[in-house]
Write a structure and sequence with these properties.
By secondary structure, this protein is an alpha/beta fold. The chain has 19 helices and 25 strands. A nine-stranded mixed β-sheet has the order 13-12-14-15-25-24-23-20-21, sandwiched between helices. Strand 24 and strand 25 form a beta hairpin. It is globular. The model has no long low-confidence stretch (mean pLDDT 91).
Length: 552
């Protein structure tokens, strides 16, 4: 395969990680993008994940954390959420590749005979496919920030490391930059920070043919100049290219910290780019609001994956954003849905100013979530149901208000006599202008209703007041839908259908009457919330919780 020629308009920044995982490569990449944007430059991103799954869509959240969905329906890594929250970049299919997706493409081409009978090998065929995926971004923005998942030294990541090594030659030094994120641990018993893990990590990277240009050193304590000089000497980088990546109170403080460390200035120097001074005041104002809240509310999140909050990363951040929009702090209380099945919801939910039931799949914990919804409805506690949470709100209303005692979703009970939520077999896809068709035998991976769909709002509802417009677009990730056969009966009992698809076939938002704020939506609004542009539903949900706290 011939590597595409580059226009040399876009400059590529490659971010790798060493020593151990979860150091924060995604946040570092997002922060770099934020700083470059603050200088008037445009950015895009790409995450290259070394696992063999084609995408994370079928992976357990305990394995991989949240699945982040883009407008075009890609199921991607949660780092895509960091990229979109920190910058104006819009992610899509081309912004996330896995080993599985790369190999799938190469094997498909081999089966079609595109390699003319030649032996297909990791080099050059796999590495060329990776390079082609990266170079799709050439011309899309001033800078493309490419994050390599995993840790340097992992065998599965070697093809990606080799591909970006080759790209340094293809692109040239003024159009490519290597940033390596590593660890400088603080040993409390010795009262010292240790540079040896960083030295070994850089040595491993250099053994693969890559000399980093900048090091970001994760540490608990500030790095003194003497330590920076030592790291620079042993790792063959300039002293001012050793950046302290110290822990901060809030992730939204990272742009300010890296700006003070001179990270963006060093990047521009090495890539021979001149800009004016960055405008970091919006970040300063944001951090000031976070650190000086006027009040606080407590929100209960009832789900299956409460022991791993990475499963709800975008949701967590969107709730924080909702607090920022109201100038207050949001305290999150994660409550196991299974505990709610066994214990009194009033006891577990005591002191909560709002209750949120997030998206999810499967029967485990479902009845506990329904009990939480009943508690919110009966006690007039602001409630927000997202995706599965909205579906269970419909089930709860059907059972306890509409008299359908055995109502359920067919996902949970295929034999329910009243399937108020069911597996829809076909619907109109507004992105492709085609009918989508599926059934119970369809493959699990990639067969959901995914990505952005339009929604028409009903006047004088919580939804319409929040958005302030007649039509919206939101991102979806689900298989089961509201059953229109029950629509009139539920509406007659007080269920408000406040958002539908333009053809009136898909129910997107439901509310109930005689409640301060009770709303469920089929889509995932958390995917479109940003710290400086909080999502209107989260903004109004938190506002309602604040009112509940003070007015009872």
């Amino acid at each position: 395969m011939k590597t595409p020629q580059t226009s040399k308009r876009t400059k590529f920044i490659f971010v790798t990680g060493g020593v151990l995982s979860s150091l924060g490569k995604g946040l570092a990449a997002a922060t770099i993008g934020a700083l470059l944007e603050s200088r008037g430059l445009t950015v895009t991103f790409q995450k290259l994940d070394p696992y063999i799954n084609v995408d994370p869509g079928t992976m357990n959240p305990f394995q991989h954390g949240e699945v982040y969905v883009t407008d075009d329906g890609a199921e991607t890594d949660l780092d895509m959420g960091h990229y979109e929250r920190f910058t104006n970049a819009v992610m899509a299919q081309k912004n996330n590749y896995t080993t599985g997706r790369i190999y799938y493409s190469v094997i498909t081409k081999e089966r079609r005979g595109e390699y003319l009978g030649g032996t297909v090998q990791v080099i050059p065929h796999i590495t060329d496919e990776i390079k082609a995926a990266i170079l799709q971004l050439d011309g899309c923005a001033d800078f493309a920030i490419i994050e390599i998942g995993g840790t340097v030294g992992d065998i599965e990541g070697l093809p990606f490391i080799e591909a970006i090594r080759q790209l340094r030659t293809d692109l040239g030094r003024e159009y490519s930059l290597f940033i390596h994120l590593t660890l400088v641990p603080y040993i409390k018993t010795a009262g010292e920070v240790k540079t040896k893990p960083t030295q070994h990590s850089v040595r491993e990277l250099r053994a693969d043919g890559i000399q980093p240009d900048i090091l970001i050193c994760r540490t608990e304590v500030p790095l003194e100049d003497s330590l920076k000089a030592k790291i620079a000497l042993f790792c063959n980088v300039q002293k001012d290219a050793v950046i302290t990546g110290i822990d901060v109170e809030t992730i939204y403080e990272m742009p300010l910290h890296f700006y003070r460390e001179g990270l963006d200035a060093k990047i521009l120097e090495l890539l021979n780019v001149w800009t004016g001074q960055p405008n970091i005041k919006p970040w300063e104002d944001l951090v000031h609001t976070i650190k000086h809240p006027k009040d606080d509310v407590t929100i209960a999140i009832t789900g299956k994956y409460v022991d791993l909050t990475e499963s709800y990363k975008s949701l967590h951040e969107a709730l924080v954003h909702g607090g920022l929009a109201n100038g207050i702090k949001v305290k999150l209380r994660y409550i196991s849905a299974e505990d709610l099945e066994e214990k009194d919801p009033a006891e577990l939910l005591d002191g909560c100013d709002g209750i949120l039931v997030p998206g999810g799949f499967g029967k485990r914990g479902a009845e506990g979530k329904i009990r939480a919804i009943s508690h919110a409805r009966i006690n007039k506690i602001p409630f927000f149901g997202i995706c599965f949470g909205m579906q269970l709100a419909v089930v709860e209303f059907s059972r306890n208000i509409a008299g359908l005692d055995r109502a359920n979703s067919t996902e949970l009970d295929f034999a329910t006599p009243d399937p108020v939520i069911y597996l829809i077999k076909e619907w109109f896809d507004y992105r492709t202008n085609q009918m989508q068709v599926r059934d119970e035998t369809s493959d699990m991976g990639g067969t959901l209703r995914l990505g952005a769909y339009p929604c028409v709002l009903t006047e004088n509802t919580h939804a319409a007041r929040a958005y302030g417009q007649a039509q919206i677009s939101e991102r979806h990730r689900h298989r089961f839908e509201f059953n229109n056969l029950y629509r009139k009966r539920l509406e007659d009992c007080g269920l408000v259908i406040s958002g539908v698809s333009p053809d009136n076939n898909l129910v997107e938002i439901v509310e109930i009457q005689d409640h301060p704020w009770f709303l469920g939506c089929q889509f995932h609004p958390e995917f479109k919330s940003k710290p400086m542009q909080p999502h209107p539903l989260f903004r109004n949900f938190i506002s309602a919780a604040l009112t509940k706290k003070h007015n009872g």
